[in-house]
Amino acid sequence: MNSVSKKTKILLKRGRTFPRLKWLSTRLLDDVFTDEVSLFRPHFKVDYEVYLQRLWDSNPEIFEILQSSSSLESARDALYNYLDRSERQVFALDNDLHILEKSTVRECVRVFRSIIGPINEHRTEFSALDTLWKLARNRHDELKEKVSPGFIMEFINLFRGVTGKSNIYMEDSQVKKGIPEFLKMKGRKAAIARTEILDELGSSVNKYLKKYPSGFEDEVIARRVENRARILHYFNGTPEDWNNYKWHLKHIIQDSKPLKDLIELSAEQIEAIDKAVKNKIAFGITPYYLSLMDSKLSIGYDHAIRAQVIPPKEYVDKMVKHRGDRRTAFDFMGEHDTSPINLITRRYPIIAILKPFNTCSQICVYCQRNWEIERVLAPKAMASKKVLNEALNWFDEHKSVGDVLITGGDPA
Predict the structure, then answer these.
(1) What is the extent of the structural domain holding 372?
(2) Could you tell me if residue 279 is inside a domain?
(3) What are the helix (H) ranges across 235-266?
(4) 364: closest CA among 321, 296, 312, 294?
């Protein structure tokens, strides 16, 4: 409670709940249509037609290519030609873009080429180009997957980026020249001029950050204090238990039942969790981490927190599909081909990885080693002394390895 403000403590002590959010109006914030609300949590309004129009407006030339192409492959060829021209324009003598914006153009072109590459479509079993092509030709009913606002927003920024309109950097005449005024000065005068520019940049950063409340906001702290009390009551715990890591390890949530009792879940989330548990796909959430989630289902500020530990349906389906070859199908780091002995992975001349413990108290969906984790806090996760000594002896025999990263899992 030390981080809770005096005002928050008083409200909690009186048993007062914080007022529900009230819809005020709708406005556009950096390409996201959102309802303004009192306090801090927004309700996002999803209007696909508006999102799509902003997508096409962000790069009319790409829209024309997609709309006029009679086939997917002709669209692919035309886009490759367009991207070649965009990259060549970076090196034109009359191109006055800032050097950092030019770098962004080249990176966006590289990413775009990679996305529409047939080999990557095969690897991911998804064609973003096919989706864009059908959207541009108004063939929405042929789409196999639902198009999310996030997908469209990604391409709005990519479409802008390939033309040098990322809006990441200031685009005034001074920056376009590439030589800020303070670089032409010396001493205190230069420092003062630089400070003025940094103050302006700092204000811009703060303007963006204010849109996203942090864990230090009074309302957020109060909500999490309420969550903590609810979780402790559910597991018959005490405030002292909350500060004891062993209590958290004892009450790790490993199925959907406690989650459904403590927070609101979507039907798809429940289905994914149940399927993961049924098929022995590692799943676990600690009580503390659960306290960071909102009790009510939303697509608000706890979305990323939920997404880290609640597996999406597509993830579970893939893991189930590759049940028999999971250890190779999901070994994206190629550890099978770079492990000279058990527990050790080596890809570089002087650096290697040692993995003495092979599980965690909480499973992150994005973990690159999910393929080798069987369950939360598996009883045989710790390597035996024999296997561990063999790995340590290997280092004695390969003295060129000077840096060792101990990883693989977190015992606490």
Answers:
(1) 326-406
(2) yes
(3) 239-242, 245-250, 256-262
(4) 312
What CA–CA distances, in Å, run from 312 to 161, 268, 307? 29, 8, 8
The answer to whether the beta carbons of residues 271 and 235 sit under 8 Å apart is: no
CA distances from 152 to 31, 49, 58, 138, 185 (A): 10, 11, 11, 15, 44
Evaluate whether residue 358 is within a structural domain: yes
Integer Cα distance of 354 and 388 in angstroms: 9
The residue count for the chain? 412
Instruction: Based on the fold, state whether residues 57 and 139 are members of the same structural domain.
Output: yes
Q: Are residues 163 and 239 in the same domain?
A: no
Within a domain: 104? yes
d(CA 377, CA 285): 12
Residues 173 and 256 in one domain: no
Contact of 360 with 409, CB cutoff 8 Å: yes
Backbone angles phi, psi at 354, to 5 degrees: -115, 125
Long-range contacts of the stretch 230-237 (C-beta < 8 A, 24+): 230/262, 230/295, 231/262, 231/287, 231/290, 231/291, 234/258, 234/261, 234/262, 235/287, 237/287
Number of structural domains in the chain? 3
CA dist., res. 236 & res. 110, Å (int): 54
Show the CA angle centred on residue 117, arms to residues 113 and 121, nearest 5°.
Answer: 135
State the DSSP code for 30. T
- Domain-embedded: residue 1: no
The tally of CA atoms less than 13 A away on the side-chain side of residue 44 is 15
* Tens of pLDDT, residues 175-206: 444 556 766 788 898 899 889 888 988 998 88
Check whether residue 336 and residue 222 sit in a common domain: no
Domain boundary pick from 321, 337, 356? 321
- Prediction pTM value: 0.67
Q: Which one of 264, 286, 321 terminates a domain?
A: 321
- pLDDT, tens digit, for every residue of 113-155? 999 999 999 998 899 999 999 999 999 889 988 888 889 999 9
Any residues with CB less than 8 A from the CB of 193 and at least 6 apart, and which? 180, 181, 182, 185
